[in-house]
Write a structure and sequence with these properties.
The chain is of the alpha/beta class. The chain contains 22 helices and 28 strands. The N terminus is likely disordered. Belongs to the glycosyl hydrolase 3 family.
């Protein structure tokens, strides 16, 4: 292409005129760009290399950033403000929120003043359960968020995360993950909302809307990047990124949450590392161009997962050269390259060799530029550094983190109503590897934390019982069997009125852990102390037992005769068969975030009535897998050794209140595509305390032309009811809820009988009713 001089840019500046439409500005800018500048806009480099911290008050852009601007015309950075063992950014050499805002302003200033066209950079950050940066609010991980069954609450949480991220100068928040968690051996279950398409979709929509708000240029919102497109969570054997083998109809379950989130306005989608039926997701034209962009009308941009374009050549072995890989990805619909080494020179060469047309390149660049214009970055590339303290990790956000943590807790068992505990208790033993370990309760994708930022279970109970003697004994580690003092735990339990044992797992990364280029951890045991980490990206499991000597510790404490309560803090369902038979109360906490200790104490001592419901099924054995609730009929038969039922089913969660369901009515209004089925019932609190119940509606298509599940969640509502109070609950089914993909791959509601099941879990069904659809309804494919 012919060179374009600076004078031409100054005299023809439609793209700099905010009164012009986004399309006009994009088209004008595209005409001015060289091939190298276009490709540069599609590169998202690792951002933590792009600054140098001078001291606690000053930060400068690095020479690496200057070189990237001059030599590679970069358009985006990722993880610039990120801190963790992989990035080697710590509390000492990383950035606090004020320095982060100063840095992002300097980055923008440099690129605008030192590039020919002055295009501001996009800054993308990890935002799974809070902005993954120093000094931000840490919310419960996504599997805990899923346990809230509360879209309104997640909207509020996502709005807070977006605000904290945007005021520091970032523009894109990676999240939510909409993968279905149907394989608990997989290392990233904690990052999902659970196993169900409908629940994932509703919670995903809430997070997308919370991130993006009503106006993406507000200065308080960020672009939401949906992960990972698609079916990433059900790889063979639970191996992270391995092949996925599923049929066309089953794939629709995995696409469903993405479709709903895209139609709710999500502006970015990330590809998956895995392949589907032999086609890598990062080169899957049917997924990206045909389904996402053409069929669903997605008008944002698709970004590869880190290194996944290079993976077409390396991991998947479907590309013979870097140029082939770049061409395969962009021709299939990938618009941006996370990592910056998949497109770059290889894509430039692919365009020159006619492997990629200029029109395809321009379409990708247009999608990225359009969002920079829509966010107002050309007019307002900088952030105000004066309002950081009031917006990042504010008291309001800490209170919100506690609220989300409270609602994320699931009471699995409460024999003889041992919970809530009496606050007048004099002596409490708090025992276990997760009772007083700040990083073990935070999950993966978490930045380094000052100790006073996090409230552990031990600290939460001490806060709750200022007059009691609260004793902490670790007892054992998560995995390492050399770090064990069960005798001390037993002695503490014997001297106490109640023992609270906190076990589970950990996704806590440390500086000894090795990582591959994508940031996934490498499972490797040293000859010395073994890390607690048994979950988190890269840590797939072959078994689901409590690791190390944790079960031995629990059994020893129980044998003292002291009333024992089990709290589990972990990132995936683990086998709890012995505790379920022998421990009177079990509280599932997942990774409850920075306020987890306070929230757990609130539930244990009755200041909050638990309302969480399981978003995943808990198996009895690895041999049962898969064990998700909405499998296709016929009903699974029992094994020789055990039955086929989960230990705890999807949707399960107890309360200190009791709820009585009655007066179910179903009203069908057949109006072709506007057909609705209105469902109404009464729910009464029969207990002595106010409680929140999640009323769940499951549907069964009684006779269908293709095999379907015996029940599928299609609506739910979380309601708060006072003691003795009754409330009317209204639920609704739409045409899309009744439809299936028939033998001809047509989306259709088939005439016939449907069964509605209303319950407190997928197995605790309280009311049933049938209704008829008299005429089939064809939907758009």
């Amino acid at each position: 292409m012919a060179a374009i001089n600076a004078q031409q840019v100054k005299t023809k500046s439609i793209y700099k005129d905010p009164s012009r439409s986004v399309d006009e500005r994009v088209n004008d800018l595209l005409k001015r760009m060289t091939l190298e500048e276009k490709v540069g806009q599609l590169s998202t480099l690792l951002g933590w290399h792009m600054y140098h911290k001078v001291n606690d008050h000053t930060v400068e852009v690095s020479q690496e950033f200057k070189d990237a601007v001059q030599d590679r015309n970069i358009g985006s950075l990722w993880g610039t403000l990120r801190a963790d063992p992989w990035t080697k950014k710590t509390l000492d050499n990383g950035l606090n929120p004020l320095l982060a805002a100063r840095l992002t302003n300097e980055l923008q200033r440099y690129v605008i003043e030192n590039s020919r066209l002055g295009i501001p950079v996009f800054l993308a950050e990890e935002c799974m359960h809070g902005h993954m940066a120093i000094g931000t609010t840490v919310f419960p991980s996504a599997i805990g968020q899923g346990s809230t069954w509360n879209p309104d609450l997640l909207y509020e949480m996502a709005s807070a995360i977006a605000l904290e991220t945007r005021v520091q100068g970032a523009h894109i928040g990676y999240g939510p993950i909409l993968d279905l968690a149907r394989e608990p051996r997989w290392s990233r279950v904690e990052e999902t909302f659970g196993e169900d398409p409908y629940l994932n979709a509703q919670l995903g929509i809430a997070v997308v809307k919370g991130f993006q708000g009503e106006d993406i240029s507000s200065g308080e919102n960020v672009i939401s990047t949906l992960k990972h497109f698609a079916a990433y969570g059900v790889s063979e054997g639970g191996h992270n990124g391995a092949a996925v083998i599923i049929g066309e109809r089953d794939l629709q379950n995995y696409l469903y949450p993405f479709e709903k989130a895209v139609k709710a306005g999500a502006l970015s989608v990330m590809t998956a590392y895995s392949s589907i039926d032999g086609i890598p997701s990062t080169a899957h034209d049917k997924l990206l161009d045909q389904t996402l962009k053409e069929k669903w009308g997605f008008d944002g941009f698709v970004v590869s997962d880190l290194g996944s374009i290079e993976g077409l050549r390396g991991s998947h072995q479907v590309a013979g050269s870097p140029q082939d890989a770049a061409a395969m990805a962009i021709n299939a619909g990938v618009d941006a390259d996370l990592g910056g080494n998949g497109f770059d020179a290889a894509l430039i060469e692919a365009v020159k060799n006619n492997q990629v047309s200029v029109s395809v390149l321009d379409a990708a660049v247009s999608r990225v530029l359009a969002l920079k214009f829509r966010m107002g970055l050309f007019e307002n590339p900088f952030v105000d550094t004066l309002n950081i303290k009031e917006n990042v990790r504010s008291e309001r956000h800490k209170a919100l983190a506690r609220k989300v943590a409270q609602q994320s807790l699931v009471l699995l068992k409460n024999e003889s109503n041992i919970l809530p505990l009496n606050k007048n208790v004099k002596k409490v033993a708090v025992i276990g590897p997760n009772a007083h370990n700040i990083y073990n309760q935070l999950g993966d994708y978490t930045a380094p934390q000052p100790e006073d930022n996090i409230v552990t279970v031990f600290e939460g109970i001490k806060n709750k019982l200022p007059g009691a003697q609260v004793t902490y004994v670790k007892g054992t580690a998560i995995r390492d069997t050399t770090q064990t003092d069960i005798e001390a735990a037993v002695e503490a339990a014997k001297k106490s009125d109640v023992a609270i044992v906190v076990l589970g797992g950990s996704s806590a990364r440390d500086f000894k852990t090795k990582y591959i280029e994508t940031g996934a951890a490498v499972v490797e045991d040293d000859k010395g102390i073994i890390s607690d980490m048994e979950s988190g990206e890269g840590y797939d499991r072959a078994t689901l037992q409590l690791m190390g000597k944790q079960l031995e510790l629990l059994k020893a404490v129980k044998s003292t005769g002291t009333p024992t309560v089990l709290v589990t803090i972990k990132g995936r369902p683990l086998l709890l068969n012995w505790p379920a038979e022998n421990i009177p109360a079990i509280l599932e906490a997942w990774y409850p975030g920075q306020e987890g200790g306070n929230a757990i104490a609130d539930v244990l001592f009755g200041d909050y009535n638990p309302s969480g419901k399981l978003p995943v099924s808990v198996p009895k054995s690895v041999g049962q897998l898969p064990v998700y609730y909405n499998h296709l009929v016929p009903q699974h038969q029992d094994y020789v050794e055990i039955d086929a039922q989960p230990l705890y089913p999807f949707g399960h969660g107890l309360s200190y209140a009791g709820f009585e369901y009655s007066a179910l009515s179903v009203n069908v209004q057949e109006k072709k595509l506007q057909t609705v089925v209105d469902v109404q019932l009464q729910v009464k609190n029969t207990g002595a305390v106010t409680g929140e119940e999640v009323v769940q509606l499951y549907l069964n298509d009684v006779v269908s032309s293709v095999v379907t599940p015996s029940r599928q969640l299609k609506d739910f509502k979380k309601i708060s009811i006072a003691p003795g109070e009754s409330k009317t609950v209204k639920l609704r089914l739409l045409v899309d809820d009744l439809a299936l993909l028939n033998v001809q791959n047509e989306r259709i509601v088939e005439a016939g009988t449907f069964e509605i099941m209303i319950g407190s879990s997928s197995q605790d069904i309280r009311l049933k009713e049938e209704f008829e659809i008299t005429k089939s309804i064809e939907l758009e494919n």
